[in-house]
Target: Sugar acetyltransferase
Amino acid sequence: MTKTPVIILGSGGHAKVLIDILQIQNIEITGICSPDMTFIQNVDNGIHVLSSDADIFEHQPDKVLLVNGLGSVKSTAKREEIFKMFKSKGYTFATVVHPSAIISQNARLLEGAQIMAGAIIQTDSVIGVNSIVSTKASVDHDCKIGNHVHVAPGATLSGGITVDDGVHIGTGATIIQGIHIGRNSLVAAGAVVTKEVREFSVVRGIPAKEL
Ligand SMILES: CC(=O)SCCNC(=O)CCNC(=O)[C@H](O)C(C)(C)COP(=O)(O)OP(=O)(O)OC[C@H]1O[C@@H](n2cnc3c(N)ncnc32)[C@H](O)[C@@H]1OP(=O)(O)O
Model:
């Protein structure tokens, strides 16, 4: 984990969880960007609040790292948009890993990946840029998780799964081995996926069926 100071984008529940991880690891938080002032009550005391993107641009891209604090419950599009905007301005996103996560030495976490408490990433798996593997979720061996993906709390991915960009895998969903999940699709909470998921589709239920 980096010792470079970070700025957190967003101040809702996901940002709070990230603050917790960063503080455990004594990472300096330069500020939290909360354009919507109504969210400020969610922010821990003592963290400097930046109220607009302009405040972030006062910090040189080589002096800070950004942490994407936007969560997602369905679409990951907003997280992707904010990531791409700041990348276009030359900023780099920190990869954040809770100390209780188990990450194989042969797994790869790409820029801005966020691995929450109790998550497990098995050998030869890749977690793409700006993707979240949330609390107690597991990604077994040889999985390829694309960019801007959210694997929500407790989801279980068996071995050899390919998840394309922009997918949301809902809380507690289970995916059997070798499945391909097409880009920008949504797997509903609790679904059990036994067949390929088409891009831009929504699947739910046991076994999961497309809506
Ligand atoms: C740390 C965190 O909190 S991260 C957040 C993680 N959260 C998630 O992963 C949530 C993922 N989202 C879901 O599973 C949602 O329920 C969705 C996206 C599948 C559906 O949401 P919406 O479009 O708002 O649907 P809505 O709640 O109106 O329900 C529509 C119908 O689908 C059913 N339904 C909703 N969710 C599910 C589900 N997961 N599985 C099966 N059926 C479902 C509802 O019962 C309802 O059925 P009805 O029409 O017969 O009454």
In short: The helical segments are 13-24, 53-57, 77-88. Residues 13-24 form the longest helix (12 residues).
